[in-house]
Design brief:
about 180 residues, alpha+beta, OB fold (Dihydrolipoamide Acetyltransferase, E2P), five-stranded antiparallel β-sheet, elongated
Length: about 180
């Protein structure tokens, strides 16, 4: 690739990685997967691409010293690392088994999250359940907030993901 092409390529990969990461967070909330696996994918791929392509990055931009290492590692980790992690998560989610299993879990902990950008005052209830020895936080719409202390269980339809990580669907609160 020529220098002019690389000046378009690196920012494009960086922005694409950030957009995919936002989508991946939504998918992560509905998947039982340990965060260390996802961070491992991000850093392994980011560091590998850093080692393979660092010379080209240095030739493309006029950074030097610590700035060169900082900006290049940020591009590789946020760009290539987030893209690889998103591909992993999205593949696990969208290529999962089609047959769900219904399970009931007891609510272990209750908390809330602020609403979206224009609805900050609409608190979203978040419940933690013990899912096979791991705590999983489930976020529900604002309409469940007022009665959140009354709910005792969460009924989930669970599918087995493509890579073996469970996918949560149709979550329903019960008293």
């Amino acid at each position: 690739m020529k220098k002019k092409q690389r000046k378009i390529f690196y920012p494009t990969i960086f922005i694409l990685g950030l957009f995919l990461m936002v989508w991946q967070i939504t998918i992560y909330r509905n998947t039982i997967i340990d965060l260390t696996i996802l961070f491992g994918i991000i850093f392994v791929v980011g560091i590998a691409t850093f080692l393979v392509d660092f010379k080209n990055y240095g030739k493309t931009y006029k950074y030097s010293g610590i700035g060169l290492y900082f900006y290049s590692s940020m591009h590789y980790i946020c760009g290539f690392g987030f893209i690889a992690c998103s591909i992993f998560t999205l593949t696990n989610y969208y290529l999962a088994d089609r047959t769900p299993i219904t399970e009931t879990f007891e609510i272990v902990e209750r908390t809330w999250l602020p609403g979206s950008k224009y609805h900050r005052d609409e608190k979203q209830p978040a419940f933690k359940i013990n899912y096979d020895g791991k705590l999983k936080q489930l976020v529900f719409p604002h309409k469940y907030y007022e009665n959140m202390a009354l709910y005792k269980n969460v009924e989930l339809e669970v599918r087995k993901g493509y890579f073996g990580f469970d996918i949560l669907e149709n979550k329903k609160l019960s008293y």
